[in-house]
Amino acid sequence: MIRFISWNIDSINAALTGDSARAELSRQVLRDIKAHEPDILAIQETKLRDSGPTKKHEEILQKDIPNYKYVWVSSREPARKGYAGTMVFYKEELDPKVDYPSIGAPEPMDSEGRIITLEFENFFFTNVYTPNAGDKLVRLGERQEWDRKYADYLCGLDKIKPVIATGDYNVAHKEIDLANPDGNRGNAGFTDEEREGFTNLLARGFTDTFRHIHGDVEGVYSWWAQRVKTSKINNSGWRIDYFLVSDRIKGEVLKSEMMDSGERQDHTPLLLEINRNILSGDYK
C-alpha cells in the first residue's frame, strides 16, 4: 500500500512559526500527518514568498518532518506576492521527476504557484490549488477557463500514464457535498459553472475516489468557514478538496477519507491509500 495525504494548510509560515492558538492547532494536524507516515504529502496555499521557505522554515521542517525531500512553487510577478503556492513532500528514497507546469490559464493564474507534478516510472502525482471564483464571482470567467485548461492538462498526463491528482478544487460538486446547498446556490464554489467544470473533468476519465469508496454518503466535508465560529461544531461544511485518479486505476484505491483535524476550522487533510501495484504498473 502507498499512502498519500493532501492538505490546504492556509499559510505554512503561520503553521510553523506562529504563536496563536490556531497555529498550535495547525501544528497538531502536522503531527498527526507525520504519524501516518505518508509516502507523499501535498500542501496547498503555502503563502510563501517567491524565494520559498526561509532558513528558519527549513530548520523546522528538517526537525519535524525528517526523512522527506520537498519541492515548492510560489506566486511570482505579475501575481500577488505571498499568495496561493503549493508544496509536495516525498520520502527521500523516492526519486521523481518534478515539473511546475503552466497550463495556459489566464494570467496571473499561471503565475500563482498553483500546480506541482511529480512523475514516477508508472504514474503521475499532481497537486493543485484551484483559483477561487472570488467575491461577487469577479473571477468566474477566468475560473471557467482554468477548469478547461486544467482538464486538458490532466488528460495530457493520462495519455502517458495513470494520474493521481489532489488538492483544493474550490468547488462542491454535488448538493450532498455541502451542508446548505439551497443557501449557497450561485455562491463561489457552488455555481452551476464551477460544478459543470468539475463534472466535465470527471467525464474525461477521472474518478472522485471519496465517492468511489463511500457512495452517496452525506455530511462528510473537508472545509468549514473560519469566519463562522460554529461552522465545525454544527458541521456546516463543504467538500471542496479531492483525490482523483485515472479511471483505469480506481480499482486499486483502498481508502479515501477525511482526516480528523480536531477543533481547527478551515480545511482538514485528506488521506488516500492505493495498492502498491501502482508503483510497478501491475494494476487491473
Structure description:
- It is a single chain.
- The protein contains eight helices and 14 strands.
- The chain has helices at 12-17, 21-36, 55-64, 140-158, 181-184, 192-203, 209-214, 277-280; strands at residues 2-8, 40-44, 68-73, 86-91, 97-99, 115-119, 124-129, 163-168, 206-208, 223-224, 241-246, 253-258, 266-267, 270-274.
- It has a six-stranded mixed sheet with strand order 3-4-2-1-14-12.
- Strand 7 (124-129), helix 4 (140-158) and strand 8 (163-168) form a beta-alpha-beta unit.
- Helix 4 runs parallel beside helix 6 (192-203).
Question: Can I get a quick summary?
Answer:
With 284 residues, the chain is α+β, with helices and mostly antiparallel strands. It has eight helices and 14 strands. Helix 4 packs parallel to helix 6.
Topology:
Blueprint (H helix, E strand, L loop, with lengths): L1 E7 L3 H6 L3 H16 L3 E5 L10 H10 L3 E6 L12 E6 L5 E3 L15 E5 L4 E6 L10 H19 L4 E6 L12 H4 L7 H12 L2 E3 H6 L8 E2 L16 E6 L6 E6 L7 E2 L2 E5 L2 H4 L4
Parallel strand pairs: 1-2, 7-8
Antiparallel strand pairs: 1-14, 2-4, 3-4, 5-6, 6-7, 8-11, 9-11, 10-13, 12-14
- CATH architecture classification name: 4-Layer Sandwich
Order of helices and strands: EHHEHEEEEEHEHHEHEEEEEH
Q: Taking all residues together, what is the mean pLDDT?
A: 96
CA radius of gyration is: 18 Å
Strand order of the largest sheet: 3-4-2-1-14-12
Helix content: 25-40%
In the residues, how many domains can be counted? 1
Strand content: 15-25%
Biggest β-sheet strands, sense, barrel: 6 strands, mixed
Structural class: alpha+beta
Number of strands: 14
CATH fold name:
Deoxyribonuclease I, Chain A
Spans where pLDDT lies below 50 across 5 or more residues: none
Instruction: Quote the distance from N terminus to C terminus.
Output: 15 Å
Characterize the overall form: globular
What is the CATH superfamily?
Endonuclease/exonuclease/phosphatase
Oligomer: single chain
Count, helices:
8
Highest-level CATH class: Alpha Beta
